[in-house]
Design brief:
The protein is an alpha/beta fold. Helix content is about 40%, strand content about 15%. The chain has 11 helices and 13 strands. Strands 3-2-1-4-5-6-11 form a 7-stranded parallel beta sheet, with helices on both faces. Strands 7-10 form a two-stranded parallel sheet. Helix 1 packs across helix 8. The structure holds nicotinamide-adenine-dinucleotide and uridine-5'-diphosphate-4-deoxy-4-fluoro-alpha-D-galactose. Nicotinamide-adenine-dinucleotide binds next to helix 1, helix 5, strand 5 and strand 7.
Length: about 325
């Protein structure tokens, strides 16, 4: 009996694999390594002292997935596999729709054929769109996304709801992540995206390690206390722990539930820069630049539903997130 982790070699996937293995669960990982390296999974093995099967395959390949289900007794799936760069999704909409939507359909087909009907899906706070009423609650209506990446998250949520309507045997958690950052406290695992990053902390990481010259603060004229965007940053290990709780949750019931995973607290870009500088002792050079199209001023979670349903809450603060990121960068100057 094992948990299949799609996209398990990625940033959130590897941290979740560690938490799953440490909680005594068996795992099977599939990933095509389009945005990760197999080495990341060796780090998971090294950290936990446990081994597990890894299949380097594309989830679009339903036949190959079918063989994974045949070779292993899979209880439930955590579905991380997907492309996630907002800007790139605007440039390459078809690639994003094909990979994320068709990939999910392919996975669901393989799951149904194997009679495995439990899924924890990586959704995103992006489904709340530009809703001005923070904190975001799961009861809010979702909004049309401003980019193809966000659209895929919303569509997959709809697909999974429709699936449950058609067959009440499914048990599905739609986890709406806010902004995961940080790294494993050991410094052995962390975020190492292929290509040019577009999220705040990976960019700060490139700047302080000399790989990028300067951070562009994208907008200082938002309606926020200091004018910069406010987000709900969440330690990746807290997020990983949320997945272990979500797996226990989908095991015991049927249904489909959207659940926010965030801390419930927002920090501005300037506050993040200060926290990172305090944790690292290194200055973050920055300049103010125009807003990014589609960005919103403020986003943070109402995290009460996760407490009620999953018995989960974030335990690590912004200082710990920045400290662990800095530790990872120092131990891995050339990435994973
Ligand atoms: P990541 O890119 O590090 O991990 C995703 C993994 O999926 C990668 O290892 C990639 O190689 C793999 N993958 C992509 N397409 C695949 C395919 N067709 N077949 C097999 N493997 C494939 O990203 P992450 O930050 O770990 O995000 C994991 C999930 O969480 C994604 O679905 C992402 O959209 C979602 N999410 C992330 C954030 C964030 O800020 N990191 C926020 C909200 C939601
Ligand atoms: N920012 C900068 N400079 C940069 C990049 C970002 O100042 O170079 C600012 C943004 O304006 C924003 C904050 O830093 O105020 C955070 O930006 P991120 O790109 O790190 O995060 P977002 O909240 O914009 O987007 C993230 C994920 C999306 C997801 C969204 C909602 O990248 O995939 O959260 O969950 F859709």
């Amino acid at each position: 009996m094992a948990i299949l982790v799609t996209g398990g070699a990625g940033y959130i996937g590897t941290h979740t694999c560690v938490e799953l293995l440490e909680s005594g669960k068996d795992i099977v990982v599939v990933d095509n390594c389009v945005n990760s390296k197999p080495e990341a999974l060796n780090r998971v093995r090294q950290l936990t002292g446990r081994d597990f099967p890894f299949y380097e395959l594309d989830i679009l390949d339903t036949g190959a997935l079918g063989r994974v289900f045949k070779d292993n007794q899979i209880d439930a799936v955590i579905h991380f596999a997907g492309l996630k760069a907002v800007g790139e999704s605007v440039q390459k909409p078809l690639a994003y729709y094909k990979n994320n939507i068709t990939g999910t359909l392919s996975l669901l087909e393989a799951m149904a054929a194997a009679n495995c009907r439990r899924m924890v899906f990586s959704s995103s706070a992006t489904v709340y769109g530009a809703n001005p009423d923070v904190p975001f609650k799961e009861t809010y209506p979702t909004m049309a996304a401003t980019n193809p990446y966000g659209a895929t998250k919303l569509m997959i949520e709809t697909i999974l709801r429709d699936l449950y309507t058609a067959d009440n045997g499914w048990s599905i958690a739609l986890l709406r992540y806010f902004n995961p950052i940080g790294a494993h406290t050991s410094g052995v695992l962390g975020e190492d995206p292929n290509g040019i990053p577009n999220n705040l902390l990976p960019i700060i990481a490139r700047v302080v390690t000399g790989k990028m010259e300067i951070l562009n603060v994208t907008g200082d004229d938002y309606d926020t206390p200091d004018g910069t965007g406010v987000r709900d940053y969440l330690h990746v290990c807290d997020l990983a722990d949320g997945h272990v709780k979500a797996i226990d949750y989908v095991m015991g019931k049927t249904g489909v539930e959207a659940i926010n995973l965030g801390t419930g607290k927002g920090y501005s870009v300037y506050e993040v820069i200060k926290a990172f500088e305090a944790a690292s002792g290194v200055k973050v050079p920055y300049k103010v630049a125009p807003r990014r199209p589609g960005d919103i001023a403020t986003s943070y979670a109402d995290a009460t539903k996760a407490k009620e349903l999953l018995r989960w809450g974030a335990t690590r603060g912004i200082d710990e997130m920045c400290r662990d990121l800095w530790n990872f960068l120092q131990k891995n100057p050339n990435g994973l």
